[in-house]
Write a structure and sequence with these properties.
Bound molecules: zinc ion
Distance between the termini: 70 Å
CATH class of the largest domain: Alpha Beta
Strand content: 5-15%
Number of strands: 5
Helix content: 40-55%
Largest sheet: 5 strands, parallel
Number of domains: 2
Strand order of the largest sheet: 2-3-4-1-5
Shape: elongated
Length: about 325
């Protein structure tokens, strides 16, 4: 794993590289930013850089033994904790902490990576805090989280925060192509990913992408439908358990597109450009105020979905923002 393998976030690479080159590496980092933008990959690239035996041009060599072991996930001086059933509990912390006090096997660093660190229970966070307050000299913590605000302040204050930003869409496309992906789906997945290469890959492997046009077209048709098909659509999204998250991202992409169209932005700003005509006529029917209501319904869902992922209520809100269906013709 090398810096060169991480797409985007060049400013982060620069910060990490400089800290390592000057031999002033903080003992605790907090990598924050949206899911799938490469925080974990960056952490591994950084560790490789620190333990590489043959650094070249500001990057790890990717070939020496420590480099290969980090890439293969078998590096003895790296421990990774991630949530099980939604939480990181105290037991794995209790197991990991004592091991940090032995000297590194390969040198010069030992690393404890805590993925989705905001899922630590209070007990787990307190256990981590004890070592964070006085870390052994060769130990580096990397806490990774999209939601640093959910961590105790005492933990936050011990960490050097590095914010990650979304990756530009064209760089996501190149990344997908470098992974051997091709075809028209690549552009769609990149546009839908909101700057997240990881999410774009996930989209490419999701059955939802193949159904995108059909799903979004049926959503756009709802503006002319009456209550029954609208309810049926909301039921459908709420009941498909595994794909709900992907479907909600499609819903988000269309809600944003409708808002852009209602605001008079050009077609090339749309995520679903192939549906531009239908999106425009939908936006004309709903108007800017209702378009804002729809986008807000989605934003509220996004803000609370970690706690109460109420898809059905969100879909109801989105659909309530639609204008009343045309009155049936009297005959
Ligand atoms: Zn190396």
């Amino acid at each position: 794993m090398r810096f060169a393998d991480v797409v985007g976030n060049g400013h982060v690479k620069e910060v990490l590289r400089r800290a390592a080159d000057r031999d002033r590496v903080p003992h605790a980092w907090m990598f924050t930013g949206p899911d799938g933008v490469g925080k974990r990959t960056m952490a591994l690239a950084f560790l490789s850089y620190l333990v590489c035996r043959d650094r070249r041009d500001g990057d790890a060599c990717g070939e020496c033994r420590p480099c290969r072991q980090v890439a293969d996930g078998v590096f003895a001086d790296l421990q990774v904790l991630s949530p099980e059933k939604g939480y990181i509990k105290i037991e794995p912390l209790r197991e990991s902490m004592p091991r940090l006090f032995y000297p590194p096997l390969t040198g010069p660093w030992k690393c404890l990576l805590i993925d989705d660190a905001h899922t630590m229970t209070n007990e787990a966070a307190n256990a981590a805090l004890k070592t964070l307050e006085e870390p052994p000299s060769m130990v580096m913590f990397v806490l990774i989280t999209p939601s640093p605000d959910l961590l105790p302040r005492t933990v936050l204050s011990r960490c050097f925060e590095v914010p990650f930003g979304p990756v530009p869409t064209d760089e996501v496309v190149s990344f997908l192509q470098s992974r051997g992906r091709s075809g028209p789906e690549v552009a769609s997945a990149a546009a839908l990913s909101r700057g997240s290469p990881g999410r774009a890959l996930q989209f490419l492997d999701s059955p939802v992408l193949a159904e995108r046009t059909e799903f979004l077209s049926s959503f756009l048709d709802l503006v002319d439908n009456d209550a029954e098909p609208r309810l049926k659509f909301a039921d459908g999204v709420g009941s498909s358990k595994e794909e709900t998250a992907d479907l909600m991202l499609l819903v988000e992409s269309i809600a944003r597109d409708v808002l852009r169209a209602a605001a008079g932005l050009p077609d090339d700003t749309l995520s679903n450009r192939d549906l531009a005509y239908a999106i425009r006529s939908f936006a004309d029917r709903v108007g800017p105020d209702r378009a804002v209501d729809m986008a807000t319904a989605w934003l509220d869902w996004d803000a609370t979905r970690r706690f109460v992922p109420n898809v059905r209520a969100t879909m109801d809100r989105l659909l309530q923002a639609l204008p009343n269906p045309p009155a049936p013709a009297r005959g």
